[in-house]
């Protein structure tokens, strides 16, 4: 795992804190803003993934995949990327929606600095498998949500 200077933050989501309802599935699912810094040399593009490993499914639940993001520091322009699939059968961002009474779920927002561009809009699993060798560095922001 490559971890050095790359950093991911959000003006909407604080590390380790509860995600605000306005970003959740039952409340409209506004897309949270993400900010990236420390992009390593050689980065061709960025990819963004949000995943809930606590979802009661074999491989958790992917809420967001976004590919083809310019390797530019600052707030990520989600309109500049290509939205990929989430595990609810659509594309783009789908907000947290854990089962009632299931407790806190952790939501991992990952940014990947890539040495080669992502072709198409793969699922999270397909992306991680096909581009593992292209990851120069990665960073995460982790927050929680429960209903």
From TrEMBL:
Signal peptide from the UniProt entry: none
InterPro entries: PEBP (IPR008914), PEBP-like_sf (IPR036610), YbhB_YbcL/LppC-like (IPR005247)
Pfam families tied to this protein: PBP (PF01161)
PANTHER family referenced in this protein's UniProt entry, alphabetically: PEBP (PHOSPHATIDYLETHANOLAMINE-BINDING PROTEIN) FAMILY PROTEIN (PTHR30289:SF1), UNCHARACTERIZED PROTEIN YBCL-RELATED (PTHR30289)
Family: Belongs to the UPF0098 family.
Protein name, entry field: Phospholipid-binding protein, PBP family
């Amino acid at each position: 795992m490559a971890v050095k200077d790359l950093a991911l933050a959000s003006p909407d989501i604080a590390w380790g804190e509860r995600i605000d309802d306005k970003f959740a599935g039952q409340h409209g699912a506004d897309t949270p803003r993400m900010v990236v810094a420390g992009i390593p040399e050689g980065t061709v593009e960025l990819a963004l993934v949000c995943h809930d490993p606590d979802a009661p499914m074999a491989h958790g639940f992917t809420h967001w995949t976004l590919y083809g993001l310019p390797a530019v520091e600052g707030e990520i322009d989600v309109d500049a990327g290509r939205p990929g699939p989430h595990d609810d059968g659509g594309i783009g961002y789908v907000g947290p929606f854990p089962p009632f009474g299931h407790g806190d779920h952790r939501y991992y927002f990952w940014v990947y600095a890539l040495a080669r561009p992502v072709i198409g809009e793969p699922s999270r699993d397909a992306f991680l498998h096909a581009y593992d060798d292209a990851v120069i560095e990665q960073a995460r922001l982790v927050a929680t949500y429960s209903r």
